[in-house]
Design goal:
The protein has helices at residues 2-15, 35-38, 84-88, and strands at 19-20, 23-24, 43-48, 51-56, 61-68, 74-76, 97-98, 104-105, 109-112, 115-118, 127-128, 141-146, 153-160, 171-180, 184-193, 198-199, 203-204, 222-225, 227-230, 244-245, 257-258, 271-276, 286-292, 298-304, 308-312, 320-321, 327-328, 335-339, 354-355, 360-371. By secondary structure, it is mainly beta.
Length: 373
């Protein structure tokens, strides 16, 4: 089988013009047999006292986050699976990094600098989270893994090739997870365009349940979102290009209240992008949201440097067998995906997501965990 595989790789390279007169035409160009695919898929853990986070390099995914409650009882507060195979077959994006462009692109197409790009649709005629094989469905290289010292960290890297899922240009991506301060998880995403302008909008897609991943639904948990506006969408969840106030709508979470208090007014629950309020301070990170589970006392505060956050309450989760055999049902977890706005490439009034060759994309999230009675 090894010989057959090598032969097929050689034929593929010749067919796409990578081999010229028996030599590699462009050594920097990755191909179907590149190092991304030779990396072994494994689980990794960062630990700091009674706070620990587990990962896999399949999708640069957060697998578990273990936290104590107000009485010291430790639980896992993110939804996920026990095996790598389950992650490979996942359709919910549990814990993964999504891209090259997170969220939706209407019609799976856009025009950039006079060139029209047709992408690979995977949600009706639209693209969701980078297509059928986005960054959540590839093997990432483990660039750094340090599980000792005051700041344990792991860094994943991935090379996205020109034309992947229809996107232009080669893109080098890294995602760094580190345990900082007292029960803090820092996530830093970076990307650099090599040779063509391309849209980039990465997001972290963990589903949180502060009562514990196997505690049932999240409807009684309280959420506060620091956003006075949102981007309304059509019946396919594509933004219509407007920015509207949350005042007087079920989307108003400026003051903390239970997730389930107005959810019955929205078929399927929440799945919407908020326009985050600008912080008056000079700090680079702005407040995004605070989640509180009264029963366990756990609190999660999220800060980030992006203009938007997708608030999703798991309305599409349907009988998914997860960790320990527990079956996740509708509203089993919530997502807070900091991002640029969905479909920004097709709305000039939305924040820019285009990265030109030599430029760098940066995205920083900070999760702060605590408890209160």
């Amino acid at each position: 089988m090894a010989r057959v595989y090598l032969s097929l790789c050689f034929v593929a390279l010749v067919a796409i013009g990578f081999i010229v007169n028996g030599s590699v035409a462009d050594e920097d160009k990755k191909n179907e047999c590149d190092k991304n695919n030779s990396e072994e898929v494994k689980f990794y853990e960062l630990k700091k006292g009674d706070f620990s986070v587990k990962f896999t390099n399949w999708g640069a995914t957060i697998v578990s986050v273990f936290l104590p409650d107000k009485d010291g009882k430790v639980d896992d507060v993110v939804l996920g699976y026990d095996s790598v195979d389950d992650y490979k077959n996942d359709t919910t994006y549990f814990g993964s990094v999504v891209g090259r462009v997170a969220n939706r692109i209407g019609g799976a197409q856009f025009t950039l600098d006079g060139t029209h790009y047709k992408l690979v649709a995977n949600e009706k005629s639209n693209m969701l989270h980078g297509g059928p094989k986005g960054f959540s469905d590839v093997i990432w290289k483990v660039k750094t893994y340090e599980n000792e010292g005051p700041t344990p960290k792991i860094v994943f890297s991935y090379h996205s090739t020109d034309g992947e899922e229809g996107f232009p240009g080669d893109l080098d991506v890294t995602v760094s997870y580190s345990l900082t301060g007292e029960k803090e998880l820092s996530v830093k995403m970076k990307a650099k365009a090599r040779n063509k302008a391309t849209p980039v909008n990465l997001a972290q897609h963990s589903y949180w349940n502060l009562g514990g991943h196997n505690s049932g639904d999240i409807l009684s948990q309280e959420v506060q979102i620091f956003a006075s506006s949102y981007t309304p969408v059509d019946d396919q969840l594509i933004p219509i290009g407007k920015i509207e106030t949350v005042e007087g709508t079920p989307y108003d979470f400026l003051q903390p209240h239970a997730i389930g208090s107005s959810i019955d007014k929205l078929p399927g629950g929440y799945d919407i992008n908020y326009v985050l309020d600008k912080d008056d301070s000079s700090k680079k990170l702005r407040k995004v949201a605070i989640v509180h589970d009264k029963k366990s006392g756990r609190v999660m505060e999220l800060l980030a440097d992006q203009p938007g956050v997708q608030y999703y309450t798991g309305g599409q989760i349907k009988e998914v067998r997860g960790k320990g055999g527990f079956v996740y049902k509708k509203h089993a977890g919530l997502c807070l995906e900091t991002q640029a706005f969905p479909d920004s490439v097709n709305h000039p009034n939305f924040p820019n997501t285009i990265v030109y060759p030599g430029e760098k994309y940066k995205h920083h999230m900070l999760y702060k965990f605590s408890t209160k009675s």
